[in-house]
Amino acid sequence: MSQKTEKHTFQAEIQQLLDIVIHSLYTDKEIFIRELISNAADACEKLRFRQSAGESIHEPETDLKISIATDDQANTITITDTGIGMTRDELIENLGTIAHSGSKAFLKQISEGKEKPDANLIGQFGVGFYSAFMVASEVKVNSRSFQPDAPGHAWLSEGSGSYEIEEAAESPRGTRIFIKLKEEDKDFAQSSRVESIIKQYSNFVPFPIELNGEVVNKMSAIWTRSKSDVKEEEYKEFYHYIGHDHEDPLTKLHFAVDAPLDIKSLLYVPAKNMESMGLARSESEVHLYCRKVLIQSKAEQLFPEWCRFLKGVVDSEDLPLNISRESMQDSALMQKLNKVLTSRFLKHLDSLAKKDEETFYKIYDQYHRFLKEGAATDFTHRESLSGLLRFESSALDKGKRTSLKEYVERMQEDQKEIYFLLSSSRETAEQSPYLEVFKARHLEVLFLFDPIDEIVMDHLGRFEEKALTAAEKADLAIEEASDSSHSLSEKEAKALAKWAKEKLGSKVEEVRTSTRLVESPAVVVDHDKTMTAGMRRFMKSMNQESGPMTLDLELNPRHAMVVRLSEMKSQNELLATRVLEQLVDNARLAAGVVEDPKTMVRQLNELLEQVLKTQSS
Ligand code: ADP
Ligand code: MG
Question: Strand locations in 172-275, DSSP E?
Fold first, then answer.
């Protein structure tokens, strides 16, 4: 075996690649550390595999680890691992030729101008080793293979045209990469700078990373371990770290699947909904890994938008290394991942709802608006999402909530629709004239307190084939009262309605006899049934124009006041008119659609005056 130095020229494509790395990449240079650590971790992983396969290993007692040494006097950084190492031929093959498709794809991408040169691409295309040349004036690789009889070698290059290789028999097992930094990149010889880079990109590498003798990666990739091996405390600690949150999460979901895709994932729901705390729109904080190496932080395509409160990690071995950020966005693989992950998360919420209601409601109370947003916008998961919605209901005590599924189970035999009523509170809902017909017919009505609820119901349209219908739009009548002696005849009621319309003029569109009222004398409903009163209130509160309000007035022919009004209209038309106007205002008030409270007070005063006059005359 010769001791002398051999000189080799780089393959043309490699030289082309190196020229780009050296001359065109200026940003994100720090990723070279991530890339070299990732290679070191791969090398350790491979050794562990050989060892477990029972192969004989050089220096079997040596622990698997990665050591980094910085020297800010000499401006050098050295990255050493005790992994699988490389033989002479492997050094030549892996570091001097286009050994794998990544380099070709990288060059193609760059030369076609599809991507502007970006250091991050290097890792994504699997040509990470060469990223060292972004910062190096000289790279020296010492490597010794795990194979017991393979001597070590040193590989040396300045990145221009050629490299030298010579035997270095005494090298320990593994690989050491020594980098002499360019003048302008000497900050990578600062240990504090390097430490923060390691923590940012490589904190979960499953082998210890020592920096100048001290272990700096505290965390192992706990998502790759089996659930039974991870302590509750470790889950929390990991969350605090990646979530940048000192509070414990509300729930965690740790799972591994291998079909249809290989996925290991650990997801968390934070204790607080930051958006509801008046902070800006949340950004997904789920990071994408491939075999424990960070591919993309905050990979927002992993989940639909409504999941943007999630934090955690997704690790998939199915990700091709030559995937770029742009193509990741709409790749079929990403969509598949998204679908699997979202379904899994929804399944988790559903099982919480069944097995741990307390936790489910803690999550629901923080994040119901996200789930509703999803129910209204995410067609793929609409069914599961609508299954998670919860509302108060006329069939339950105040404060108790029901799912739509449970509502359907309680429905009357001939009932075809699911009814809901948007209102500001439980009390208002229970007092609502719109509820009367439902009470009389023992029909359940869901109480919605959040304006977004009605929007969601509108978007959903149906649940399990049952139409979701606003109480005010429901086409329902109470059964005819057996004792109709105190009620207006059909003829009288018609005459009253005709008279009322004459008096009210354009204030209402139509006046008719109501079939839905029991206790209230009158109710107003939207003439063209496009919008509920609750929705109008909401639009108004948002300073949104909800269009001109054309209301119909419905009069209750069984109500004593209405019966009296019918008699009075021919006896004292002035007073009858005042009462009628007040009746309309009261109905508007009950519906929450009073336009001008000042006019209302004036009318009320005029009415009182009339009443007093009548009494004294
Ligand atoms: P990739 O890691 O995607 O394969 P790189 O350019 O980072 O691409 O590395 C090229 C090859 O060089 C690796 O596949 C591996 O075979 C070899 N290599 C790089 N670093 C090491 C190391 N520390 N130990 C052993 N082999 C290495
Ligand atoms: Mg690599």
Answer: 174-181, 209-211, 214-215, 251-257, 263-269
Q: Can you give the residue range of the structural domain that contains 124?
A: 6-215
Tell me the CA–centroid distance for residue 39 and ligand 1, in Å: 5
Distance (angstroms) between ligand 2 centre and the Cα of 41 equals: 9
> Which pLDDT tens digit goes with each residue over 78-107?
999 999 999 999 999 999 887 665 667 677
Q: How many domains does the chain have?
A: 4
Q: Is residue 374 part of a domain?
A: no
Distance between CA atoms of residues 525 and 475, nearest Å: 12
Residue 79: strand, helix, or coil:
strand
CATH number of the domain encompassing residue 418: 3.40.50.11260
Q: What is the CATH number of the domain that holds 315?
A: 3.30.230.80
Long-range contacts of 117-121 (CB under 8 A, 24+ apart): 117/20, 117/24, 117/25, 118/25, 118/27, 118/28, 119/25, 119/27, 119/28, 119/29, 119/31, 119/32, 120/28, 120/31, 120/325, 121/324
3-state secondary structure of 7: strand
Indicate which residue's Cα is closest to atom 23 of ligand 1. Answer: 40
Return the best residue to mutate from 42, 144, 290 for the ligand 1 pocket (most ligand atoms within 8 A of CB).
42
| Identity of the amino acid at 422 | L
The string of pLDDT tens digits covering residues 107-150 is 776 777 655 666 666 765 667 899 999 999 999 999 999 999 99
How far apart, in whole angstroms, are the C-alpha atoms of residue 309 and residue 431? 37
Total residues found in the chain within this entry: 617
Within 224-378, residue ranges assigned H as helices are 232-243, 325-330, 332-355, 357-377
C-alpha of residue 160 to centroid of ligand 1, in Å: 20
Q: What is the spatial distance between Cα 311 and Cα 265, in angstroms, rounded to a whole number? A: 11
Is any atom of ligand 1 closer than 6 Å to the C-beta of 592? no
Tell me, using a 6 A CB cutoff, whether residue 43 lines ligand 1.
yes
Report, as an integer, the average pLDDT of 349-367: 97
48 or 427, greater pLDDT: 427
Is residue 572 in a domain? yes
Residue 325 pLDDT exceeds 60: no
Helix (H, G, I), strand (E, B) or coil at 572: coil
Query: Residues within 5 Å of ion ligand 2 by Cβ?
Result: 39, 128
Q: Are 404 and 443 in contact (CB under 8 A)?
A: no
| pLDDT confidence tier of residue 382, bands split at 50, 70 and 90 | very high
Q: Residue 492 corresponds to which amino acid?
A: E
| Residue 131 maps to a domain | yes
The CB of 84 under 6 Å from ligand 1? The reply is yes
- Tell me which of 432, 448, 473 is where a domain ends: 473
- My answer on whether 426 and 516 are in the same domain is no
Tokens 């109370």 belong to residue: 365
Sequence-ordered list of residues with C-beta below 8 angstroms from that of 116, at least 6 positions apart, any chain: none
- Cβ of 249 closer than 6 Å to ligand 1, yes or no, is no
Helices (H), 202-356: 232-243, 325-330, 332-355
C-beta neighbour count of 149 within 10 angstroms:
7
Q: How do beta strands 136-144 and 174-181 pair? A: antiparallel
Which ligand 1 atom is the nearest neighbour of the CA of 177? 23
What is the distance between the alpha carbons of residues 245 and 252, in angstroms, rounded to a whole number? 14
What pTM was computed for the model?
Answer: 0.67
What is the radius of gyration, based on Cα positions, of the chain? 37
- C-beta of 127 in contact with ligand 1 (< 6 A): yes
